[in-house]
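In response to a reviewer's request, we include the raw inputs and outputs for one of the modeled complexes. The two entities were modeled together in a single run.
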Amino acid sequence: MENKAITCKDLTKQFGNFKAVDSISFEVQQGEIFGFLGANGAGKTTAMRILCGLSFPSSGEATVAGFDVYRQQEKIKKNIGYMSQKFSLYDNLTILENIEFYGGVYGVSRPEIKMRSNELIGTLGLEKEAKKLVGELPLGWKQKLAFSVAIFHRPKIVFLDEPTGGVDPVTRRQFWDMIYEAAANGITVFVTTHYMDEAEYCNRISVMVDGRVEALDTPANLKTRFNTTTMDDVFYQLARGAKRGEE
Amino acid sequence: MVSVQVKNIVKTYGDVKAVNDVSFEVQKGELFGLIGPDGAGKTSLFRILTTLLLADSGIAIVEGFDAVKDYKNIRNIVGYMPGRFSLYQDLTVKENLTFFATVFSTTIEENYDLIKDIYEQIKPFSNRRAGKLSGGMKQKLALCCALIHKPVILFLDEPTTGVDVVSRKEFWEMLGKLKKQGITIVVSTPYMDEATLCDRIALIQNGSIMSIDTPDNIVQRFPKPLFAAKADNIYKLLQDLRADAEVESCYAFGEYIHLTLKAEGADAMSVMRIVGRNNLEGLEVKLVTPGIEDCFIRLMENK
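The model returned the following C-alpha cells for the whole complex.
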C-alpha cells in the first residue's frame, strides 16, 4: 500500500435510486499525474468529494494517502491539497495574508510559514506584489499562486478541479510546468480538465461515463485502442453514448 | 451588408483598460468569434453591444442602430446569452421561456420553429426549476430564451465554458443550424479549437485585438515552419529545447512539443539535429500545420 496514493474498489455513491458513482475501481501511484475525465454529470465531482474526505461513500472501499475514506476523513484532509477554478484564494486578503491563512489552517508552524512564504514569493517573482490584494492580480497569476498555496503544506496528493479554465494558452502551459515540478517532487496530482490537450500531459487518465470508469490507461494506449490520433476523439467515442449526461 | 460595427471602442474600469481601442465589423448572417482568455475584454464588448454598458469612447452600431442613442431598438432585436447563467432559478423551464416570450410581446407558439430542435431536448424537464438543471441543460434553456423573440442577431458570451467535449460539439451544431436560418451570431470562447468553426474570428488579449480574419487566413500568416517533436521523456525534451540557443519558441501541445527555430527556412533535418542533441529515447520530428492556438501564442509573444 505504501506506494499507492489512492486506491478505490467498487466505490459507490447512491442518492435514492440514483447511482452517482457506480462501483468504480482504480489505483493512483505516488508521484503520478492522474487525469480524471468525464462528461458533465458523469459523477466526477461526487467521486472527488469522497476522495477529499467531504462525503461518505454508500459502499465499496477507498483509501487516500493510506487513510480510509469512512473512518479517517480528517487525516485525509490534512494530507491533501485542493484547488479549483471556482474557489481558490480570498480576493480581499493580500498575497502574503492568503499564504499565512492557508499555512495556518493546515497547521504549518509560524517560523516555517515565514520561511516558506518568502521562498515561494521569490520563486513566483511576486516580491513587488506580496502586499497587494489578491483581487488585483491578473487571473493567470492568481491561478499559479492558488496552486502554490494548495501545495504549501507539502501534501502527499493535490486535487485540481479544472485548474486552468479561462486562462490564456501561455499561462496554461506555465501552469502545467508547475504541475510537472510538483510531481517530480513526489506529489501525486489528481486533475480534471476540459482541455483534451492537457489530458495528454497526464501519465494515465480515466474517463467516467454515467457513474462508471469506462476507460483507464495511458493517453497513448487509449488512442491506439480507439484507433485515433487525438484524445478529443477518444473522449467523444466514450462519452457520446452517455445516457444521463443531461440529468 | 454590415450587421455590427465597432469603432475605436475604449472602456476602462479605474486603472484597468478592459477594452483598448477595438474596431471590427460583423457581416449579416456571419458566425463571428471573439477568441481569447478571461480578462481579454470579451464580456465588456458584449455588454456594450447589447446596450448594458456605456463605452468611455468610440462608436458601436448594431443593425444600423446606435448603441447609445437607439438602445431601445437594439434591445428588441438582439438575443443575449450572458456568460453567467442569468435565468430565474426559481422559475421552471417552461415559466422562464414564457416569461421571456411575454417580455418581448410574443408567445412560445409563435416562434416555436426556431427553438424546436433545442427545446425538444429539455422538454421532458419543462416543469423542473431552472436552478435544478445540469450545466448542459441550463445552456440549452438559456439559448432558447435568447431566441424566443426571433432576434436578428445573437450575442453568446462563452456559451461552452466548462462544458464537456460532447456537449460542446452539439452546441456548435445548433449554432450552425441557426446560422442557416440567417441569424447573425457573435460568439466568444476561450477554447481555441472552436475558432475554426467560425466564419471569421478576432483574437483578443488584454483589451486589444491581435488579429482578425478567417481562421484559414490567420493560420496561413504564421510566419515560420512549425515542427512537432516528441520523446519518451517529453518534459526533459521541453526543458532541453528551452535552453537551446537555436530554438526560437517551444510549447507543449498534447503529446508533442511545437517549436520554431530562429534560423529562416529550417527543415525537419535541422530540427532533428537539435532535438537529438541530448540523446533522448523515442525521438520523433515532423512538420505540422499551425493551429489557431499556435497563432495566438505567437501573437502574444510578439507584443
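As requested, we also summarize the result in words. Chain B has two domains: 2-215, 222-302. The mean pLDDT of chain B is 94.
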